[in-house]
Specification:
The complex is a heterodimer of chains A (about 110) and B (about 120). With about 110 residues, chain A is an all-beta fold. Helix content of chain A is about 0%, strand content about 60%. In chain A, β9 (about 85-95) and β10 (about 100) form a beta hairpin. The N and C termini of chain A lie far apart (about 40 Å). In chain B, strands 2, 4, 5, 6, 9, 10 and 11 form a 7-stranded mixed beta sheet that branches. The chains are: A mainly beta (about 110), B mainly beta (about 120). Chains A and B meet through β4, β5 and β9 of A and β5 and β10 of B.
Chain lengths: ~110, ~120
């Protein structure tokens, strides 16, 4: 059974720092992996989607990497800003199945 | 519309009441999902529609939960005889096609509190 883990559960850093959020999964047979952002009281916003054949995806200050063999993905945020404060969740699609298996998220606080 | 819209935003129900949660997906989106999210957890899959067809309802916790999408657009999640353990945020998401290599668009959710 696929399990997705995100460590740490919470992270607080000063503005301007570069940071890395971690996501690990137990079954390497995935179709794709997605990173989402969730703001309090709001739904989820898809940030990056990495296909199983890809190693990384970039969008602005965000870079997500995928290492299927080790069951890991990282979300790199460059030059963090207070507006980046949110909960970040990763989710994997196993094979071509549409069911996403989610981590519990990392709550990120960027201090001004 | 511009995004996925869910209503009501908040719902308080007495235990035993029936509730209905509505989802308006992005116009033209084929796929529609319902998720349940407990506090501090990631979403849990409930059910999936492709147009009006409910292709998977394996995540529905019990037969008290029922979802429909009769015309392939708006969807309703109904919970009968609500219980305290049903308290959660219910999220709806849609996607343009059926393929799972596309991003999901989420609504803001309905926060259900059962007293």
């Amino acid at each position: 059974k696929q399990e997705v883990t995100q460590i740490p559960a919470a992270l607080s850093v000063p503005e301007g720092e570069n940071l890395v959020l971690n996501c690990s999964f137990t079954d390497s047979a995935i179709y794709n992996l997605q990173w989402f952002r969730q703001d309090p009281g709001k739904g989820l916003t898809s940030l990056l989607l990495i296909q199983s054949s890809q190693r990384e995806q970039t969008s602005g200050r965000l870079n997500a990497s995928l290492d299927k063999s080790s069951g890991r993905s990282t979300l790199y945020i460059a030059a963090s800003q207070p507006g980046d404060s949110a909960t970040y969740l990763c989710a994997v699609n196993r094979d071509s199945n549409y069911q996403l298996i989610w981590g519990a998220g990392t709550k990120l606080i960027i201090k001004p | 519309g511009a995004g996925v819209s869910q209503s009501p935003r908040y719902k308080v129900a007495k235990r035993g009441q029936d509730v209905a949660l509505r989802c308006d997906p992005i116009s033209g989106h084929v796929s529609l999902f319902w998720y349940q999210q407990a506090l501090g957890q990631g979403p849990e899959f409930l059910t999936y529609f492709q147009n009006e067809a409910q292709l998977d309802k394996s995540g529905l916790p019990s037969d008290r939960f029922f979802a429909e999408r009769p015309e392939g657009s708006v969807s309703t999640l109904k919970i009968q005889r609500t219980q305290k353990e049903d308290s959660a945020v219910y999220l709806c998401a849609s996607r343009p096609e059926g393929a799972s290599n596309e991003k999901l668009f989420f609504g803001s959710g309905t926060q259900l509190s059962v007293l």
